[in-house]
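I have a small job for you when you get a moment. Can you supply me with one protein entry, sequence and fold together? It will help me judge whether the discrete encoding reads sensibly. Write everything out right here, beneath this request:
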Amino acid sequence: MNRTIASTIVTLVIAMTIGGCGHGQMRQDWTALIDGDKGMENWSMSGSKGNWRAEGGAIQADKMIEGKVASVLVSNKSFKDFELYVEFWAADETNSGVYLRAPDPKTVNTASGAYEVQIWDRNPNPAYSTGSLVNVASVQPIYKAGGKWNTFEIYAKGTQITVKMNGVVTVAISDAKNIKEGRIGIQFNGGPIKVRKLQVKEL
């Protein structure tokens, strides 16, 4: 084998390896609730009516059509113990979040008992800015989502909840809420939010 051919093969192997680690990767034994612009059938809308749609390789919303509270996409299925992987894009001003274990699909918020992994760089209360668990676990306001694609890796088993943002642990808690099972939700409450990957693995 000459040097040129060997070099070409090595380059292709490296490119395929890097590509396999990107956002297109499907994890073994995981269920995709959102995969690019596919998956709207796995969700229903709660709260206000936002312009949720499949567009540009993602499920997204950027406009409130009707109502005065947040618009939330709610998973049709309920989950108890699970790992969750999310790839999302937010603007600097976006107010969004990922809900866990929402007990009532018609009322999805922290007041109803759901956990919310916050996406809000400019929260007036910086302790509960991006990467926090709203009203449960605060963060230093150093995690910024605005203007780029980000990842959440969330582990929820029993009372244990851990959140990683872009590979860094933002919160890790043991919280004895009575809510042990519920829906997953994606909040739109101002500013654009896009999700191009949401995968779940039940534990």
